[in-house]
TrEMBL record:
Domain MmgE/PrpD N-terminal: 20-265
Family: Belongs to the PrpD family.
Name of the featured protein: MmgE/PrpD family protein
Pfam families according to UniProt: MmgE_PrpD_C, MmgE_PrpD_N
Organism this protein belongs to: Cellulomonas edaphi
Domain MmgE/PrpD C-terminal: 290-476
InterPro entries: MmgE/PrpD_sf, MmgE/PrpD_sf_1, MmgE/PrpD_sf_2, MmgE_PrpD, MmgE_PrpD_C, MmgE_PrpD_N
Organism phylogeny: Bacteria, Bacillati, Actinomycetota, Actinomycetes, Micrococcales
Amino acid sequence: MMKLHPLRTYKSSEPLPREQQLAWKIAEVAVDPVAVDADVADMIVNRFIDNAAVAVASLGRAPIVAARGQAQAHPVGPASGGAGATVFGIAGRYGPEWAAYANGVAVRELDYHDTFLAAEYSHPGDNIPPILAVAQHVGADGAALVRGIATGYEIQVDLVKAVSLHAHKIDHVAHLGPSAAAGIGTLLGLDPETIYQAIGQALHTTTATRQSRKGEISTWKASAPGFAGKMAIEAVDRAMRGQTSPSPIWEGEDGVIAWLLDGPEGRYEVPLPEAGEPKRAILDTYTKEHSAEYQAQAWIDLARALGTRHPEVRDPARVASIVLVTSHHTHHVIGSGANDPQKYDPGASRETLDHSIPYIFAVALQDGSWDHVASYTPERAARPDTVALWQKVTTVEDAEWTRRYHSNDLSEKAFGGRVEIELTDGTRIVDEIAVADAHPLGARPFTRPDYVRKFRTLATPVLPGDVVEEFLALAERLPSLSAAEVADLNVVASGLPAAPKGLL
């Protein structure tokens, strides 16, 4: 039974014992030797395959080429404490922090891996690159890797359920630094004191504003989670060397709650597993069938179906208006409620378009499909009939869809809404969708064959067929892999672009 831990600010004159601090309680969860349940291990394999699929598909994209170049500038050296880690797409061994950064950017670039949404937003699969990099560096086996990943997911999901960052314009990776540090602590079998210090440092160094996801969205959107993973590894390294952290990091008078979140009067309750309770949070998360912001997943599925059933809605000359009635988040972050003119700009960046539900709905409506490349090309975005239809799509917030979005009852939690289409002849078409088809409660929930198909679909254009199958064969045995096999969890591609020159 999960236990709720109260969280608030304490004045410096009001000492808070270490054992009562959230960072220490998280460390206690990380050191709990409870076994990983079979269904949790199975889902970890699914998400490992999922991460690899989207990472491989993005190997030629500019942010990944740049991040890979930075990793290549930091090969593992003779003074290192381990064997180094691999970087997707290339051979060699690199500093684990830089490998985690490069692979983290690759995983995040296409906005195409798993998600969990509650009080905050998150992509819990972002925990995998730093935990894998450390596992390869120290020679850990698959069982240890799976334990570490289970902790990373558990802590991030628990923080996301309790603490809203976006309400104060703080980027969601502020929950990733602590969760990755905790997962690495589990992997390495560290003591609570060391993990506690690492969590404090990881949080302190990964708080940043949400401007990375506002307006003209830049390539940093993909880099932010990789940077958080890199910071988590460096925090663990410093803590293992006996270095300490700002404390109490969440609860202090000048800490995160007091100055970045709800302020001195803020109150939270963070759910964490009891001692001996399995870490099962990964089962609350869900992946993406489509390469777009998660709140767009259900809308893509609805648009595909509507365009097929009602071809007339694809013609802007026949459409007077399209209104998406939805949750607060969808309206204010990826909808017209964001008041970002860039979301209606045919010349906007890909990062901006995948956070524009008016654009996404219009293209899915017209094409009856969604592709991680073709749906975002400048030519596709600038097509005159698409631009005309796109400009007619707006969003409005509805209290009931917002309530369902925030519901703690996973059976009613929803990320879609209702569409109201008015045609120029007066016809009105209304339909709705609660969750994406691939969601666990959707029309076609993702299972292992879907994850394997996603990997083959995205990796086959980039890798030789034998490399694709060899990687899948290893990944599907993840919990039982030897240390040597974990070290081989990588793919090498040919013909990748050379990295641009930088400083390092």
